[in-house]
Task: inverse folding
């Protein structure tokens, strides 16, 4: 089967592979759609930590089950599924405590092991989340929405609270839409006029703020009736933005870092103590989050239609990936893996 492999930073190549052989506890699935993630882009540019080359990318997947044994989940051949790509040790303390998303020995397919840029893969049955009501493109978006949604879950956002989401990449958009589906008042900040316009016009966010505006904090307080928000979720991975979050959360508030920075964060401890802030990291998502997000997309509470701005075929990835990810109006690119026989 024709497979696309990232050989070195900046260079994809087409290779031939044998079709995978299913093992007990696994399903053989056909990959129909792949979401292009920030992780894929970082890997392409040689900036992804804990990454080895060559690697077959692709962890945001919309798939069809081809072969599967009888299972407790009630899955069967022909079902459409989203893939939970986090391979965890079920006997680890984190997994036992319900936090399989941050297991000590976690391995993510398409990042730490080969992923879905190929027609067929095998997946542990428990990592498949079914929705025959959703399209393969929608299913390929579920994982990235889940990461943002898990950040919202970590924030313990309460009814009537205000939340500031900083950063409007796909992870930030997932957090924004999940928070909006809960009925929360969402304020969005970014330095990109285009991204803010997308949030305002396509996602229908009421309050969008330019993060580098000199009057930003006053505008934020105005959006929150004179106060600061109880929750600040940063999805930028930018040191300045993450450190600034400590000055933007209300007294008694919570800060969630979804974006990852490869380095150190510094903050003013008297300010941190004065406000009695709670700081949380958020990594990946849990199986329950996948179920919640799929239900929200099925019901229409989360609308994925505006997300996909660019599409390309799998075999065009070596020639078109770089120009696609450089498009100024890119929100989300989807790869079609269906090859003509």
Result:
């Amino acid at each position: 089967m024709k497979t696309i492999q990232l050989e070195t930073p900046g260079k994809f190549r087409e290779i031939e592979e044998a079709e995978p052989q299913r093992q007990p506890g696994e399903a053989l699935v056909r990959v129909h759609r792949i979401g292009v993630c920030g992780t894929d882009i970082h890997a392409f540019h040689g900036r992804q930590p804990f990454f080895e080359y060559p690697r077959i990318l692709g962890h945001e997947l919309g798939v069809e089950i081809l072969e599967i044994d009888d299972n407790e989940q009630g899955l069967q051949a022909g079902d459409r599924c989203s893939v939970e790509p986090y391979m965890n040790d079920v006997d680890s303390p984190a997994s036992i405590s319900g936090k399989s998303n941050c297991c000590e020995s976690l391995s993510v397919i398409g990042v730490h092991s080969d992923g879905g840029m190929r027609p067929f893969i095998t997946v542990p049955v428990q990592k498949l989340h079914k929705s025959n009501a959703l399209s393969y493109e929608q299913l390929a978006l579920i994982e990235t929405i889940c990461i943002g949604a898990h950040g919202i879950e970590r924030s313990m956002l309460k009814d009537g609270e205000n939340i500031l989401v900083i950063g409007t990449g796909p992870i930030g958009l997932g957090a924004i839409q999940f928070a909006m589906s809960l009925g929360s008042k969402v304020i969005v900040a970014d330095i990109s006029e285009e991204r803010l316009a997308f949030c305002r016009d396509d996602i229908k966010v009421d309050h969008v703020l330019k993060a580098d505006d000199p009057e930003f904090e006053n505008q934020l307080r105005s959006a929150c009736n004179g106060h600061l928000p109880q929750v600040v979720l940063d999805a930028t991975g930018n040191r300045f933005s993450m450190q600034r979050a400590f000055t933007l959360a209300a007294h008694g508030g919570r800060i969630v870092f979804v974006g990852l920075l490869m380095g150190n964060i510094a903050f003013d401890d008297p300010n941190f103590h004065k406000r009695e802030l709670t700081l949380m990291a958020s990594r990946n998502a849990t199986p329950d989050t996948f179920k919640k997000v799929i239900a929200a997309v099925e019901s229409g509470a989360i609308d994925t239609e505006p997300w996909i701005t660019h599409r390309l075929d799998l075999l065009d990835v070596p020639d078109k990936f770089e120009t696609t990810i450089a498009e100024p109006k890119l929100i989300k690119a989807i790869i079609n893996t269906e090859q003509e026989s």
Q: What stands out?
A: The longest helix spans residues 136-155.
